[in-house]
Amino acid sequence: MDLQEYVDQFDLMTCILSVEKKPDGSYGKICIEAGNKAYLASFEKNYDSPISLDNDKAFVPGKEYTEYIPKDLNFEHFIVSSAVHKKPMHAYIHPDRFNVWFNIFSQPLSIDDPNKCYCTYTQEISTEANIDQLTNHSAQTTSEVLKTCIKLRSTKNFLKTMDEVIADIRSICESSYCCILLTDFHERTCSLLCESIKPNSGQYSLKNYLNDPFIDYAKSWLETIAGSNCLIIENNHDMEEVKRRNPNWHRSLQSAGVKSLVLFPLQHNNETIGFIWATNFDTKNTEYIKETLELTTLFIASEIANYQLLQRLEMLSTTDLLTGVLNRNAMNNRVLRLVTGRERAPEKLGIIFADLNGLKAINDSEGHNAGDCLLKEAAFILKSVFEGCEIYRAGGDEFVVVATNKPKEELEKSVEKLRKDSANPENVSFALGFYFNENGGDIRIAMHEADVLMYEDKKRFYDRYPPMRRK
Fold first, then answer.
1. Class of domain 3-129 as given by CATH
2. What confidence tens digit (pLDDT) does each residue in 226-256 have?
3. Model pTM?
4. Which of 12, 52, 183, 283 is most buried, by CB atoms within 10 Å?
């Protein structure tokens, strides 16, 4: 067959690729044997295209594809599936290294060559996503993705639903382990959102390995993926490439007994917010697994981003940003829920008003930064002394502790310890008011009584230490 004559029949950008066959059944070099006029034009410097190959090399038939573009394991899986395994292939992808979408097709070619297998490779490029292409999947894939979407959109408990979703994904992959790791490269933090472990697989929870340096480990995965949209390790050939790109990760995979892996970054607004991966999956279903996860991760990333946004908004609306305790808004909402009956009243209720002594004097003499440090230390002390209670910063130098169903004796002991420490003005000092109702009662009455007692204690403090009195 005249490969050039054959490929010139295509109007779209098309080339013919060969895959070297090795005696042990593995594959070797993947080469570009011929390309039509539209394909060859992409190698010209003045070619008007939304992508750039970033090289000055003219096309030479028979050269390895890595002469022109970076090595890409996903591309190799795609070509080997077509050329070697004789499967017609199609994918619609958006590699990170290009700001475009690729609609790619490959057809196996029957050419009598004992050393090579062949296929065509055709691509269309667009700067905007085509919704029809994104949704053009098999019935099995569509069903699985739709099931995930319905679960996520109808949930009232996001974390519990994510546990179900990750278990479903592990089942689809028939893998020994599957998880979602959340990352924030700006804050240098990472956390495990959910995981599913196959029983009796010998796999360990990722929790055993998460520590401060792990974020650097996760960041290295993006370099290993090398601008593709995912990483798939099917065999020793792929594992050797990972060893070349990321030796430390390769050692970790080997020690964990990982033979195969599929890893997808979770992208939202062009930022990586985490990763989803499955280990020791069924490599006979690689194309189906890749197709399913490519689409599923779009929805999962969006839902995670929405959940994180709601968490941040809730934190901003209910947390005092300086001290980290709950704010006045959260306290008012808590009182309202109890008063209106939207929340069951506690059987026992204790209220402690803790007003920080001497804050104004510190602000006036040492500045507001020193005053802020004092407020932070005060909040830390209250959280330590009243562990398991709700701590609110009601405003300025005033804190409120709400203790539900705690024994009176336990609270009295904590209050007296704090009162004893506060007697020394060199310490962080509080004026304290404590009210307790064995029957729960009306929280508004409890807060009023504790407030009155706190002001009496504050008066006694300033009577003893007049220089610290507010002016």
1. alpha beta
2. 888 899 999 998 999 999 999 999 999 999 8
3. 0.71
4. 183
